[in-house]
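Try it yourself: sequence plus tryptophan, in.
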Amino acid sequence: MNAGLIGITHAGTVLTGDRPTGPLHLGHYAGSLRQRVAMQEAGYRCFVMVADMQAYTDNAEDAAKVSAAIPELVADYVGVGIDPERTTVFLQSAVPELAELTAVYMNLVTVSRLERNPTVREEIRQRGFERDIPSGFLCYPASQAADITAFRATHVPVGDDQLPMIELAQEIARKVNRIAGREVLPEPRAVLSKVTRLPGTDGKAKASKSLGNAIFLSDGPDTVREKVMSMFTDPGHLKVSDPGKVEGNAVFAYLDAFDPARDEVEELKARYRKGGLGDMPLKRRLADVLEAVIAPVRARRTEAYADRGAVLEILREGSRAAREEAAAALAEVRAGLGMFSL
Ligand code: TRP
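Structure, out:
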């Protein structure tokens, strides 16, 4: 069941989140979602944030898209097993203390430091911003440091593209502590799953909504099966008897991430490499494996999404609790930095 999870040895506080820009897919599930659920089960204090303010940093003129994605994201959370009774699920913009803390942190980080962030650079390239970068977008890593430190998070389960953000949060925490002359904030650390990056169904390095190569947690059984059946395998594997390549083969990448029968997968790999194993039986196996993962998620997700009032109540209740936490941390940071208070 736990294919791809890292061992968890001691408890702490978890903060993580996602931009509400579209439904979550199996890449999110393998990379971060199931790790969060495992940490919730292991008794960590957990905060999961719908990062709407961060979503606006490159969607300022498409707020409707963000609005539509917010309840979808909460339903995805409930679907994968994030339990609002045990995990505080909240909306970033409903915790204004985070914006205030961001403003404080922007004085602790230089523009050139922000410009060096490899993930932000890649996003700027992908979005074609060139020199017309929204300043909020360039600064979102400082805002993310605020998200993390406002909850004194010790653990941040994320995909590997988020490592530069965690690094900046560590730097900022260290700087606050140095100026304060005592530990005001713990230094957070990233928690990566064994599967840090799930390829797309087309074999491209990353599954993503914009590339149209992802299997969504909300996909119906027929869609899941169709996507698996058209998955990229090994273009050189023409006849069943030909030796096939396992590396770069999306079907094996997904089996590695989700098939609980590890030994059988290793055996299949050996047979595939040798020749004599066709793509079809593998794809049929994968379709069943994925359906077994997605079916319970889909059922809970559909049920949660149907009750919009309850979804909004989860966010309202969570945001109220989150505000208390964030206000306390903000007050400590301000005091630690010696800022004037009335
Ligand atoms: N940047 C994250 C993403 O794109 C979302 C996010 C915002 C986040 N704030 C966070 C993740 C704080 C972890 C911690 O998915």
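One thing you can check immediately is this: Residues 308-336 form the longest helix (29 residues).
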